[in-house]
Write a structure and sequence with these properties.
The protein is mainly β. It has a single domain, classed as Exo-inulinase, domain 1 (Jelly Rolls). The chain is built from 2 helices and 17 strands. A hairpin with a 3-residue loop joins β13 and β14. The protein starts with a helix and ends with a strand.
Length: about 260
């Protein structure tokens, strides 16, 4: 009897472990730390693939946004896109802000970056598009003086739903205080297509919402829908932002969810 019970217990453990592995998948590094393989930039006014003034760099295991070669920002808003279209996944990374806002950048660009997700393919973007039409898990750093939050949600040409209501304002704060020094901050987004999106800062849930969707009052959003993109956005590409303040990312990892 003891042998029989032990066999049953081992079988249950094996099945449970197998199911957990299937459900959780495997975290993979999508930035190798040595170069920008798998990532491609797009800047306002520049062709897709042009890494304007060497803004995006791989250095010492970090993906950095550098403005060392800039005399003036000149509205060169940049995004660097991961190569794979995704729908259901978890993305985690660490970030920190360093240095100072580049001359000519907008004041709101101070310690401001983000993770755009469910974006169109960068080849679809107009040459002079400034704000990428997609939802953003916003990353902010503090200035040590004013109240600022990180892990917020911001929308450009899009809306979201939260607490059964449509949210049309551009940004909604998470309530998680932004860090003012150069400490590394852990951020994660968990994306379940259009059903549910979760933001986490240092392992704590700070934001949850659903149904990212195009705003039909936005010209580019309308163009995307006319091209066949559904109003409710359930898939797309990931992009990290460069908005005028140097920022560093590391340990960029992806876990695909099978649902």
């Amino acid at each position: 009897m003891k042998t029989y019970l032990l066999t049953i217990a081992m079988l249950v453990l094996t099945v449970t472990s197998s199911c957990k592995q299937e459900k959780d998948g495997e975290w993979i590094r999508i930035f190798n730390g040595n170069d920008l393989t798998g990532w491609s930039p797009k800047f306002t006014g520049q062709a897709y693939g042009d890494n304007y003034l060497n803004t995006f760099q791989a250095k010492e295991g970090k993906l950095i946004v550098s403005y060392d070669d800039y005399d003036n920002f000149d509205n060169k808003f940049g995004h660097i896109f991961y190569r794979e279209k995704l729908s259901r996944y978890r993305l985690r990374l660490e970030y920190r802000f360093v240095g100072a806002l580049v001359p000519g950048a907008p004041s709101w660009g101070f310690k401001n970056s983000g993770i755009k997700y469910h974006t169109p393919h960068p080849a679809e973007l107009p040459l002079d598009q400034t704000l990428l039409v997609a939802v953003e898990a916003q990353i902010l750093g503090g200035d040590g003086k004013t109240e600022r939050f990180t892990g917020n949600v911001c929308t450009a040409g899009t809306h979201i739903e939260m607490n059964d209501g449509l949210i049309t304002q551009h940004c909604t704060n998470s309530g998680c205080p932004a860090i003012s020094d150069t400490s590394w901050v852990k951020m994660e987004i968990e994306v379940h297509g259009s059903d549910k999106i979760i933001h986490k800062i240092n392992g704590k849930v700070v934001m949850e919402y659903a149904k990212p969707q195009y705003d039909d009052t936005d010209e580019f959003a309308r163009e995307l829908m006319e091209k066949g993109h559904p109003r409710i956005i359930s898939e797309g590409y990931i992009a990290l932002q460069g908005e005028g303040h140097p920022v560093e990312f590391k340990n960029i990892e992806l876990l695909k969810l099978e649902e």
